[in-house]
Specification:
Blueprint lengths: L1 H17 L3 E5 L9 H8 L13 E5 L4 H9 L5 H14 L6 E3 L2 H9 L4 E6 L8 E5 L1
Parallel strand pairs: 2-3, 2-4
Antiparallel strand pairs: 1-4, 1-5
Keywords: Signal
Protein name: Phosphate ABC transporter substrate-binding protein
Length: 137
């Protein structure tokens, strides 16, 4: 019985870690509110500006990053393979360019902190005062 209890606790902890919360971040100077629909349009290349008309520069984490997979799934409602096919088609037809990819949370955070037009996402545990959280998933 003790083994079973320990196993269940470990399984629950592992599941919680696998589904870490994602924070969508912008530069602290950016006053725009961002909805899930806005994020879809920005990160799928269907929009290039925030609600107030100012330029928006979406930044993706590199493929294989856990936060990227969570963002793709929870926000864009697509798998990595679906997004790769989506962007391949747009690039091939000359109708779009995917968001720039950065290596990790620290790189996204630094890019967003240094660019008032940037919007990205990181693991919520990586958030600090250099960026402003506009949504969590």
């Amino acid at each position: 019985m003790r083994f079973l209890t320990t196993f269940v606790l470990i399984l629950g902890f592992t599941t919680a870690l696998a589904q870490a919360e994602i924070a969508v971040v912008v530069n602290p100077a950016n006053a725009n509110a961002v909805s899930t629909d806005d994020l879809n349009r920005l990160f799928l290349g269907r929009a290039s500006s925030f609600a107030d008309g100012s330029k928006a520069t979406p930044l993706n984490l590199a493929e294989g990053q856990a936060a990227r997979e969570e963002f793709d799934s929870k926000v864009l409602n697509r798998s990595s393979a679906q997004l790769k096919a989506y962007w391949s088609k747009l690039v091939f037809t000359g109708k779009g360019t995917p968001p720039k990819e950065l290596a990790d949370d620290a790189a996204v955070k630094a890019a967003v902190a240094g660019d008032s037009t940037a919007i990205g996402y990181i693991s919520s545990g990586s958030v600090d005062g250099s960026v402003k959280v506009v949504a969590t998933f």
